[in-house]
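This part of the workshop introduces the protein records we will be handling. A record pairs a protein's sequence with a compact description of its fold. Comparing a sequence with its tokens is the quickest way to learn the format. To make this concrete, we reproduce a full record directly below:
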Amino acid sequence: MWETIIVNPFTNVLLLIYKLIGGNFGIAIILFTILIRLITHPLMAAQIKSSTKMTEFQQSKQWQDIQKKYKGDKEKLAQEQMNLYKELGISPFASCLPSIIQIPLIFGLYQSIMRALAPTPGQLLIMTRVVYPFFHLAALVPLNSKFLWMNLGQPERVYMFGVGIPLLAIIVALTTYVQSKVTMPASTNPGDQGAQMNKMMALYMPLLLGYFALTFASGLSVYFITGNLIGVAQYALLGKVNWRALIPGYKPDTTALVRNK
């Protein structure tokens, strides 16, 4: 099921793009990333809508009254908060959905990159069995795995003075962190579940993707970096990027937001 729905289609789409652009696998990965972002755009739009609802919820008089009423009872406060979520049709974890959905896409893309490059005879045999007939496989093999200074089928390192520096892994972690920070919605109550989940994702996703970039094929890092930059651009076009969130110690003026509500 996994192979049929995810890995095989990914492999064939990558090969098709590779063929159409004249044999540059790095560019094929970048274009494939753009395609994935277009397909998952409705999820991102739903994420933004959910984040907006959450902000409005935190600014509402109804929620503020509940906070005051159950200030000394955290268990009851949490229970009333979840009841109000259900009443208003709000999911506190919806803003994390695109990040969660990205995880199986990451593994599927990694497998499809390795399959398309087919570095061993055994993997080449597997690819001949899963490639769609109209690709004319003989004209594509062997694929060009070189892109800039990288071998896309191997983990990336830049050697300086005999030391291998994982430059792409560093860039992946940084761009993931930047995307998480500048697209994170302001919260009037940093202690609520949605705000806590967003903070955890902003911390752990850069570490997780940075580890993947450090360990797996550099083609995956190209996907990560491209996806992060496109993600920031999508939010910027919608006017949802908060660049001030990158300033150390920055705290949103949520009291002004409440007054303007």
Q: What stands out?
A: The first strand starts at residue 146 and ends at 147. The radius of gyration is 22 Å. The mean pLDDT is 79. The chain has eleven helices and four strands.
